[in-house]
Automatic annotation (TrEMBL):
GO terms for molecular function: acetyltransferase activity. The chain crosses the membrane at residues 6-25, 32-53. Its main location: membrane. This is PC-Esterase. It comes from Salix brachista. GO terms for cellular component: Golgi apparatus; membrane. It comes from the Eukaryota.
Amino acid sequence: MFGGIQIGVLAACVVLFVPMGMAGYHLSRNKMLFFSGALFITLAVGVHLTPYFPSVSDFVTSVQSVNVFDNREDSCINLVNEVVWNVKPRIISSNVSDSSNDSVGYDKIWDWSKNGKVKGCDFEKLGREDVKDLLNGSWVVVAGDSQARLLVQSLLSLLLDEKRMGMIMGDLFKRHSDYEIVVDEMGMKLDFVWAPYVVNLTNLMVGFKQNRTYPDVLVIGAGLWHMLHVNNASDYDIALENLRSSVVSLLPFSPELGTDGPVTGSVSVRSPHLFWLGMPTLINAMLNTEEKREKMNDKIWHAYYGALHNSRILRSYGGPLLLLDIQSLSWNCGPRCTNDGMHYDGTVYEAAVHILLNALLIESHQKLGSTEF
């Protein structure tokens, strides 16, 4: 039994040589016409044989599929959350002769994955001077619930010395309140806005647009309060869609996000760097009230997580906001990194801050040592 290639070759020979023989007989007096006809038939045979030779087909396909716009920066921005953890126990000595009084603590060490494409992105933990260079002269706004406040704490810990951090902690963690600070030596202003519901975030976006004042870096995120006090994922989805529209309106030009052109009055306004602070993994058994354990169970959490994706507010789903993946960071750090199943150790938010900073380096096309966005 003949295979596909053999049948193809046989058919090609018939198609090629029979007409050529007939042409040679009838057109022997006109050599130019003869060879023109032969060339045409040869090309036709080549097209006929191409499907029978995988190497040829693969080559054509590979040429068609080459993306001349493949951008290393775009691929790295999608990998910036690829963090791995090493949580290991250590003995804390009680400094007495009886070792039975010793306790066990845990070292929580994180870094970016060293596998595959992530390694090629050269992500790095930035030192204080590097962060000051990166954020020099910028206005940073972080808005949300207690998760956002913890992110602010980690960011300021990178910028301020221990003494000054101790001086501001009381004001920073004043219950359900805003906070602002100016770091004079680098000209950076940081605003924390207490905004536990998505509608609070939407109102903040409206305020930016009305005042025509836009931060350089905007980090927003909310969901835990809605989950506890409203407990309706469909309502959360609608609120996120409204927020998405408000965020997109901050962008001077955003055809890929569904606007038709420049936002009125925003000529010369550059788009802020936009981030969404994700919700943490909730460890139900560790939540500190019965109401939380009932309303913030795994099923509800996943419904809210699905609503976030359905809203298309995240860049990975066609939206304007780059995710700071607290869910992944907290899940991989694990139960050793939380006391109440909801708020995690500072190491988790420290990792989120460095993810944000590396994303800023990529988005602003900066290298360490540059002084402005």
